[in-house]
Design a protein that fits this description.
Elements (H helix, E strand, L loop, with lengths): L2 H8 L20 H11 L1 H10 L9 H16 L3 E6 L1 H4 L8 E6 L4 E13 L2 E3 L5 E3 L4 H10 L4 H9 L13 H17 L5 E3 L8 E12 L12 E6 L11 E4 L9 E6 L12 E5 L9 H13 L14 E5 L4 H19 L6 E5 L5 E6 L7 H9 L21 H5 L27 H11 L4 E3 L29
Parallel strand pairs: 3-7, 3-8, 8-10, 12-13
Antiparallel strand pairs: 1-2, 2-3, 4-5, 6-7, 6-15, 9-10, 11-14, 12-14
Length: 487
């Protein structure tokens, strides 16, 4: 043995480096293995097992669910979103008026809409230096009142004009300014709050909802300079006598003004209570002893039909119908008279008979037609709809012609509310008081804006269940062990 061999034999060999051992990754259960488990253990037991798993080893759907729920909880825990000012004009190219503040509190699932107004109390009629009555409120009805006052002896005109002054200026109605502020607030809040809920549509967030609460903050100012930069509108409130019917009302932005706090609302002191002019109620008459309308009533029905076009194909919003009360000597005559009304509704505007509800109204020669629910509108609630970024829906000339699109038609259609148009109806933006889903589209858009999340839609919140890879098999029936006696 050589020296080198002897040395090598005396030295122990170095141990080999241990091999790196990786932790085995358990594969997710296959559909076949889950099926086999269900057939032996039953669907309920397997479903519970899968739902308790958060690793995805047993249920590959669980990690996505767990992460989504953590994200949802973090969103809620982060607290209130907003408030911030919503400008309808930057969100809808068709719009050029309105503005409000929006905030969302996920902890209580409340969408807070706040409308702030500075109210300037102005006379409806004044006397000039020569003792002549001059209209401040610009309607035809006030102009007629001015003409009547100026026919009075000069010495008595002051007393007549006094009815058109607020109590702070010597008018006869005590506390009328506070009454206006209180009724403005309650009328708008009750009309617009909690009408149509929203819910998140993000996967596994569907149990997060939003209920709208509208808050109105209005207060008196001495002159227009008293409106600050955070207030959305200057309200010009013109005094008119109690019970006055008429007056002009509108919302606009001042010349050269484009922002959400640049709005001017003009109303009368009577616009905080329901209207008295029955815009949704129409009387008709029938020819005595016949199943025919009088000639004057034929014209009334034709005009009504023209103002209420049928919905276009693809319309998803509710379209108002009619309730027709008909009198007659017996059932046959009442039926003939209803048929006459239906025929003229069809001739006048092609109205579908399915939109008409018939009510027998006893004997006589009269009839009555109600549009939609017939509920009277409160003007400040309608005008506040403009502050919320909505156009009129009633009819008129040009762009207001029956069937024409409104300035919020495209915005509403983008949220699935297709078919908004100018038409006589019981909608709050037409001539009634009903807040329909299309009237909440700016609130939905504001919710998306303030939360920075587009996954919201109409509808109440929905239950969210953990996902299951389980199928739909019931637990197997117990078997009888072999050799067991059966009674």
């Amino acid at each position: 043995m050589s020296t080198s061999e002897r040395v090598n034999a005396d030295v122990a060999p170095a141990p080999a480096a241990p091999a790196t051992v990786s932790e085995p990754v358990a594969p997710a259960l296959s559909a076949a293995r889950i099926l086999a488990l269900q057939r032996t253990a039953g669907n309920t037991a397997v479903a519970r097992l899968l739902q308790r798993d958060t690793t995805g080893v047993l249920n590959p759907l669980m990690p996505e669910y767990e992460q989504a729920r953590k994200d949802r909880d973090a969103f809620v825990a982060a607290g209130k979103k907003g408030p911030q000012t919503y400008d309808p004009s930057t969100r809808n190219p068709e719009n050029y008026y309105g503005g409000f503040d929006v905030a969302y509190d996920p902890a209580v699932e409340q969408l807070a809409i706040t409308l702030k107004g500075a109210v300037l109390f102005l006379p409806g009629i004044t006397l000039d230096g020569s003792g002549t009555a001059v209209a401040g409120e610009p309607s035809a009805e006030t102009a007629a009142a001015v003409a009547a006052i100026n026919k009075l002896p000069a010495a008595t005109r002051g007393a007549a004009v006094n009815a058109w002054q607020w109590s702070s200026a010597g008018g006869p109605d005590a506390d009328d300014e506070q009454h206006f502020l209180d009724k403005f607030t309650s009328s708008v809040q009750s009309a617009w709050s909690a009408q149509h809920p929203f819910h998140a549509t993000k996967k596994y967030w569907e149990d997060l909802g939003a209920v709208t609460q509208v808050t109105v903050e209005v207060s008196k100012i001495a002159d227009a300079s008293g409106k600050d930069a955070t207030t959305h509108m200057l309200v010009n409130a013109r005094k008119v006598p109690i019970g006055f019917v008429g007056g002009n009302a509108d919302v606009h932005r001042g010349s050269g003004k484009t922002g959400p706090t640049d709005n001017v609302m003009s109303v009368t002191s009577e616009d905080v209570v329901p209207r008295k002019d029955d815009l949704l109620e129409t009387d008709v008459a029938f020819q005595p002893g016949k199943g025919l309308l009088t000639p004057a009533s034929v014209g009334t029905v034709w005009r009504l039909a023209k103002e209420m076009p049928n919905p276009r194909p693809g319309t998803t919003i509710e379209i108002a119908g009619l309730t027709v009360q008909v009198q007659g000597k017996d059932d046959q005559q009442r039926k003939d008279r209803l048929d006459a009304v239906l025929d003229h509704l069809k001739q006048g505007g092609g109205m579908n008979a399915s939109r008409v509800k018939f009510v027998a109204d006893g004997e006589g020669d009269s009839g009555h037609i109600t549009v939609g629910d017939g509920k009277a509108q409160t003007v400040v609630a309608h005008e506040s709809g403009h502050m919320f970024g909505l156009d009129d829906e009633y009819t008129g000339k040009g762009a207001y012609a029956p069937g024409k699109a409104t300035e919020h038609t495209k915005l509403a259609a983008g949220e699935g509310m297709a078919g908004a148009m100018h038409a006589k109806s019981d909608s709050i933006m037409s001539e009634g008081a009903k807040v329909r889903p299309q009237h909440y589209t700016t609130f939905l858009d504001a919710l998306k804006l303030v939360t920075g999340m587009n996954e919201w839609d109409f509808g109440a919140e929905q239950a969210v269940k953990p996902p299951s890879a389980a199928g739909d098999y019931e637990a197997p029936a117990p078997t009888t062990p072999q050799g067991t006696a059966v009674a």
